[in-house]
Design brief:
alpha/beta, Rossmann fold, 7 strands, 21% strand, binds S-adenosyl-L-homocysteine, binds calcium ion
Length: 214
């Protein structure tokens, strides 16, 4: 579902810096060749990630859920010179395609793309991270948050995608919520109640939580 009128969304996109050739190509190839192309960040959210990263100018970013590399490339564009994006995904079927896109972005030297279960990989990552993007399996959002919060630098930004879960966060009381929806509800509550962060939930695309470690 779209949270705003389609015409207004189009107006927003028409007033957002254009997607470059590479990001357009990633979108096309994701739609043509990959399962669940809806998961890609896309133009508006991608540019927002890029702008957030340029504002934050991080040395190290952790991304959980690479998919076809769209969001990772957007964020890598805002890294400090010599900085690094560590991006994790469990799906090794996309590896060749994604490595190709990273090469084409000219940022492959700054991107550490690792395949495996993020739950197993993160405990071995030393940090500190100046920025993190949680965008993998919804059921584990809370675990990802607990695994990274102590590794975030002071002032570090954690972004989490799909926190409105197509609007299912508003499932009526008394009605049974499915597991993913419950996981998102628990995650949003946990952030809201955590005194270690200040946060805002942005109703962009499927909802983006922005939490800054104090
Ligand atoms: N960030 C991407 C979209 C990510 S889609 C973008 O905005 O364009 C979610 C990804 O999470 C999928 O590619 C899926 O393979 C990955 N994923 C799911 N469970 C995972 C896990 N346990 N560890 C690492 N990656 C996982
Ligand atoms: Ca997502």
């Amino acid at each position: 579902m779209e949270f705003i009128d389609t015409a207004l969304l189009a107006y927003c996109e028409n007033h957002t810096s254009a997607e470059d050739e590479l990001l357009q190509k990633i979108t096309r190839e994701t739609q043509a060749k990959v399962m669940m192309p809806r998961m890609i960040s896309g133009h508006l959210q991608g540019k927002l990630l890029e702008l957030f990263t340029k504002m934050q100018n991080p040395h190290t970013i952790l991304e959980i859920g690479t998919y076809t590399g769209y969001s990772g490339i957007c964020m890598a564009r805002g890294l400090k010179p010599g900085g690094k994006l560590i991006t994790l995904d469990i799906n090794d079927e996309l590896e060749t395609m994604v490595r190709g896109f990273f090469e084409e972005s000219g940022l492959a030297g700054q991107i550490d793309y690792r395949l495996g279960n993020a739950l197993d990989i993160i405990p071995d990552l030393p940090g500190p991270f100046d920025m993190a993007f949680i965008d993998a399996d919804k059921i584990n959002y809370g675990k990802y948050y607990e695994l990274i919060i102590d590794k975030m630098s002071a002032g570090g930004i954690i972004l989490a995608d799909n926190v409105l879960w197509s609007g299912k966060v508003l499932t009526e009381k008394g009605k049974k919520t499915d597991k993913d929806t419950q996981a998102i509800l628990d995650f949003n509550k946990m952030i809201q109640e955590d005194p270690r962060v200040e946060n805002a939930l942005l109703p962009i695309r499927d909802g983006v939580m922005v939490a800054r470690k104090i």
